[in-house]
Design a protein that fits this description.
The chain is α/β, with parallel strands linked by helices. It folds into four domains: 161 residues, Ribonuclease III domain (Ribonuclease iii, N-terminal Endonuclease Domain, Chain A); 75 residues, Double Stranded RNA Binding Domain (2-Layer Sandwich); 140 residues, Rossmann fold (3-Layer(aba) Sandwich); 105 residues, no CATH class. The chain has 27 helices and eleven strands. Strands 8-7-4-9-10-11 form a six-stranded parallel beta sheet. Helix 16 crosses helix 17. It binds magnesium ion.
């Protein structure tokens, strides 16, 4: 791009080119010259020629009315919010500077020396200003229709329609809002469910709610990205005709269910994964691909004692060494500690070995891995009935979502993906419950088999109204049941009563 002002002969040729390019021949060429004169040029010349600032003031309004009128007539189905955003994308500084360059106005711009040296000819704010001043000059010289013609031509040539279409595609938040306003006369609500990851690479999970119903959630690097992804998923969900009965349906009760230990019995799977991991440490003692049945039964009896997966390795080691189940249960933590010390094992190593043994098993033989899970009696039928009745059921689990889906679909349940909160959502259960609580008026029932998890919920004032149940059939110790029975905030629930809960 040229740096200095044009010579007088170049100037004449520049002005001619602008007029040829736009198809408007000025009656008063001074209007065009003024539109191209920067205040810094005026300051350096005697007598001082008029600069463009008054024209720019007028041109800003001319541009706004032309573009507003165009959008109003071409997009009759758009709300004012969407139209405002569209107008802004066509009239902001970046856009107007591009129009100025497209028309060759930058070539004819008259600048003072300080502005020339400061790069004024490339500055977007200056270029945007001269486009507006130019539009005002055309308006004064040739009238509104002439200004409209030139303006709409340049918008079309610079790909405005394509940009608007792109903006539409990239704007699921706006699209979702339009949908919910026209269908439910309400705006979608977004709620931050979790904020995880290290300081330099945070992750935000945001849920979208429509009409008091949870619809979708997504994780992104910032709020805007997570919100936009959640809106995109919500749009996909709403596009399905089956979504409308749910969104319009009764919002008075919501069930949030833990998976392992409430719906699904995964004790044998944990024992077998532990066995496979133990085999990597002590191959001679753990020779077969799966544990002997009798040992697995003893492991399952002790399963309520287990706090995290890796302890399964140590439990099997201790059971193999002949420790009695009753004795082990009465001094679980001590036995675990002693075993780690005796074999010089660190927690991190055990976590890694347990995780990779399970991953390898899933990879090598998914069928066998899935078959190692069973469901508690009556739970699957109750779940089917409840889903068919359109009840709001959510599953909150620390398992990966695809495994939960595979296990449930094996029983003939297509569980709604948007109400499955697995490991993939990066959100602790209390955050999910808080998000659900804040966005629905429903009575929330939360069923869980870990007392520690329920204790976390109890501490949160926001969850005061959530009904908390301890499932007595899951991986729960008798001592925990006794403790829960003495806590007025908690309700201990039996399996028969749980399956009846959905029918009330
Ligand atoms: Mg559980």
């Amino acid at each position: 791009m040229k740096k200095y002002n044009s010579s007088p002969s170049e100037e004449i040729s520049n002005l001619e080119q602008i007029q040829a390019r736009t198809g408007h021949v000025f009656n008063d060429i001074n209007l065009l010259l003024t539109a191209l004169t920067h205040p810094s040029y005026t300051a350096e010349h005697t007598p001082p020629p008029e600069h463009y600032q008054r024209l720019e003031f007028l041109g800003d309004a001319v541009l706004q009315i032309i573009v507003s009128d165009y959008l109003y007539k071409h997009y009759p189905d758009r709300q004012e919010g969407a139209l405002t955003k569209m107008r802004s994308s066509l009239t902001n500084e970046t856009a107007t500077a591009a129009y100025a360059i497209e028309l060759g106005l930058n070539q004819a711009l008259r600048l003072g020396h300080s502005e020339i040296d400061g790069g004024g000819r490339q500055r977007k704010s200056v270029l945007g200003d001269i486009f507006e001043a130019f539009l005002a000059a055309v308006y004064l010289d040739g009238g509104m229709e002439e200004a409209r013609r030139i303006c709409l031509d340049i918008l079309a040539e610079s790909g405005a329609e394509e940009r608007l279409a792109q903006q539409e595609e990239c704007n699921p938040i706006g699209q979702l809002q339009e949908f919910t306003q026209s269908t439910f006369q309400c705006k979608p609500l977004y709620h931050l469910i979790s904020h995880t990851g290290p300081v330099h690479a945070p992750l935000f999970t945001i849920g979208a709610f429509i009409n008091g119903h949870y619809v979708s959630s997504a994780t992104g690097k910032n709020h805007k990205q997570a919100r936009s992804l959640a809106a995109e998923q919500a749009l996909a969900f709403c596009a399905d005709a089956a979504a409308l009965p749910y969104l319009n349906g009764p919002a008075d009760t919501l069930f949030a269910l833990d998976f392992d230990g409430v719906i699904c019995n995964s004790a044998a799977e944990t024992g077998c994964s532990g066995w496979k991991a133990a085999a990597t440490l002590w191959p001679q003692d753990f020779p077969s691909p799966l544990p002997p049945q009798e040992l697995l039964e003893r492991f399952c009896a002790l399963r309520p004692c287990l706090e995290t997966g890796y302890q399964a390795i140590l439990m099997l080691r201790i059971l193999m060494d002949g420790v009695d189940v009753q004795e082990f249960a009465s001094s679980f933590s001590e036995q675990i500690q002693q075993c780690m010390a005796k074999h010089k094992l660190e927690k991190e190593e055990l976590v890694r070995r347990f995780g990779s043994a399970r991953d390898k098993w899933i990879n090598d033989n998914l069928e066998e891995w899935l078959a190692m899970h069973t469901f508690y009696p009556g739970v699957i039928d109750a779940l089917k009935t409840a889903l068919d009745a359109g009840l709001q059921i959510h599953i909150l689990t620390t398992k990966q979502e695809r495994f939960v889906q595979a296990l449930l679909s094996g029983c003939g349940i297509q569980f709604p993906q948007n109400r499955l909160w697995g490991l993939d959502k990066h959100a602790p259960k209390e955050n999910i419950l808080q998000a659900l609580r804040e966005n629905t008026k429903a009575i929330i029932h939360f069923v869980e088999d870990r007392l520690e998890t329920l204790r976390r919920m109890e501490k949160l004032p926001a969850l005061e109204s959530v009904r908390l149940y301890l499932a007595d059939w899951g991986f729960v110790l008798p001592a925990s049941i006794a403790e829960a029975k003495n806590d007025s905030r908690l309700q201990v629930i039996a399996l028969e009563d749980f399956t009846q809960l959905f029918k009330k």
